[in-house]
């Protein structure tokens, strides 16, 4: 599969599929469908006859079951076609460093862009690999065109090797993942899968079955406004109240002071005038309990501050964003266990990880499609220093094939 996966990858990254959070349309950018149309063509060529692009820009396709067993679950493999708005995805010129021998990689299009071993220690594990980079003037788009190429190569391999037994496999390629709308229009009924795997992680061998749980909090403050010349003893300036709240936030509970499994309270927006002010926060933790504790702390800080402003008031609104998918995956432990076994069979030491963020999979898991995240091999996502190893993409494609075999074998 090695040649197939790399050829495909090089074909897909030159198509600009950047999504746009400001756009109200679905998909957010029409150009994402250019890749979509190519993929449908290629799927049809492979022999996957139901492949199609729907009106929302998603691709659905099926590798039919070839086993006499009728109790093999329907598995979905999922990847996203868009690239992040953080850095240009126009006119990507992929470069291949063949048989990498170590050391920093200077990118030819911009001498200031250097992939340094000091920043990317994983390079030490990639000696002898073929490493794909951009020319330094754009991102590469390994996030997540590596995942797309891996699923495509695995699909072709399964179709061409009918002696490998597997159940029904569904392919789902989404749009607008990078702007948080990746699964807004997914039709789970039409998909008809029992569970899925996103191919959208990083280092070879990793599987992620945990994400943050996430809430947003809005604090609306109403102060007491009065002409500053007559304000003595009366004015309660909402801007000062907002400032007091921010000043009291615990400094050791911020994104910049936490890592690993610790969550945070993070102010993301402040606006106001004398009579009213608004504070926006995001709250993150790996447990529901941790979220609630942090929200209670934020509200008690607000109450404390408000004691000094008896004429003022506030509202405190919590909005759920997404939840740690582990809660769902723990009810179906084989989904992750089989992936761990497939990674081992593909020749790697499996590593289980957690994501300090969310994935399409965390939302899919709570929509009814349990969905951990398997590595796609890319590194330094959303930047001109993005890179991926051909050999690691091949290992990801092999992992998909091994997973398909495993679910049939054990059914
Ligand atoms: Zn991604």
What brief labels describe this structure?
about 30% helix, globular, alpha+beta, binds zinc ion, about 400 residues
Strand portion, in percent? 15-25%
Question: Given the helix and strand composition, which structural class is it?
Answer: alpha+beta
- What's the helical proportion of residues? 25-40%
* Ions and ligands: zinc ion
- Shape, per Cα inertia axes: globular
Draw up the topology in text:
Blueprint: H1 2-13, H2 32-46, E1 52-53, E2 59-63, E3 75-80, E4 95-97, E5 105-106, E6 114-115, E7 131-133, H3 142-160, E8 169-174, H4 188-191, E9 195-201, E10 206-211, E11 213-222, H5 238-247, E12 264-272, E13 276-285, H6 288-306, E14 313-322, H7 326-329, H8 333-345, E15 351-355, H9 360-367, E16 373-375, E17 378-379, E18 387-389, H10 390-409
Parallel strand pairs: 3-8, 3-9, 9-16, 10-15
Antiparallel strand pairs: 1-2, 2-8, 4-7, 5-6, 7-18, 10-16, 11-13, 11-14, 12-13, 17-18
The structure holds zinc ion.
Describe the model.
- The protein is of the alpha+beta class.
- It is built from 10 helices and 18 strands.
- It has helices spanning 2-13, 32-46, 142-160, 188-191, 238-247, 288-306, 326-329, 333-345, 360-367, 390-409, and strands at residues 52-53, 59-63, 75-80, 95-97, 105-106, 114-115, 131-133, 169-174, 195-201, 206-211, 213-222, 264-272, 276-285, 313-322, 351-355, 373-375, 378-379, 387-389.
- The strands form 4 sheets. An 8-stranded mixed β-sheet has the order 1-2-8-3-9-16-10-15, with helices on both faces.
- The radius of gyration is 24 Å and the shape is globular.
- The two termini are 26 Å apart.
- The relative contact order is 0.19.
- The mean pLDDT is 96.
- Bound molecules: zinc ion.
- Zinc ion (ZN) binds at residues 80, 143-144, 177, 200.
């Amino acid at each position: 599969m090695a040649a197939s996966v790399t050829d495909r990858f090089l074909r897909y990254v030159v198509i600009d599929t950047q999504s746009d959070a400001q756009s109200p349309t679905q998909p957010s950018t029409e150009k994402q469908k250019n890749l979509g149309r190519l993929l449908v063509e290629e799927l049809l060529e492979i022999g996957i006859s139901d492949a199609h692009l729907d009106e929302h820009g998603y691709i659905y396709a099926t590798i039919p079951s070839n086993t006499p067993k009728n109790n093999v679950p329907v598995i979905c493999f999922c990847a996203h076609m868009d690239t992040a708005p953080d850095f240009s995805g126009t006119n990507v010129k992929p470069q291949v460093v063949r048989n990498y021998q170590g050391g920093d990689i200077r990118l030819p299009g911009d001498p200031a862009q250097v992939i340094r071993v000091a920043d990317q220690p994983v390079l030490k594990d990639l000696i002898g690999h073929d490493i794909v980079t951009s020319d330094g003037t754009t991102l590469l788009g390994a996030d997540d065109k590596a995942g797309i190429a891996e699923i495509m190569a695995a699909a072709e391999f399964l179709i061409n090797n009918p002696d490998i037994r597997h159940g029904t496999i569904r392919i789902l390629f989404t749009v607008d993942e990078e702007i948080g709308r990746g699964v807004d229009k997914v039709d789970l009924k039409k998909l008809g899968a029992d569970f899925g795997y996103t191919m959208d992680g990083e280092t070879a061998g990793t599987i992620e079955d945990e994400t943050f749980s996430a809430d947003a909090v809005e604090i609306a403050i109403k102060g007491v406004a009065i002409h500053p010349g007559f304000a003595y003893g009366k004015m309660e300036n909402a801007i000062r109240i907002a400032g007091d709240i921010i000043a009291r936030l615990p400094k050791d509970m911020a994104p910049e002071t936490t890592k690993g499994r610790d969550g945070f309270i993070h102010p993301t927006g402040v606006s106001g005038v004398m009579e009213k002010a608004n504070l926006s926060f995001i709250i993150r933790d790996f447990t529901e309990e941790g979220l609630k504790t942090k929200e209670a702390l934020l509200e008690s800080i607000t109450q404390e501050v408000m004691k000094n402003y008896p004429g003022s008031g506030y509202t405190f609104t919590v909005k759920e964003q997404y939840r740690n998918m582990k809660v769902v995956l723990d009810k179906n432990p084989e989904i992750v266990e089989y992936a761990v076994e497939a990674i081992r069979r593909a020749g790697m030491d499996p590593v289980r990880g957690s994501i300090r963020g969310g994935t399409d999979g965390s939302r899919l898991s709570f929509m009814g499609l349990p969905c951990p995240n398997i590595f796609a091999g890319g590194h330094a996502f959303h930047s001109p220093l993005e890179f991926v190893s051909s050999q690691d993409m091949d290992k990801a494609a092999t992992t998909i094939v091994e997973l398909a075999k495993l679910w049939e074998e054990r059914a």
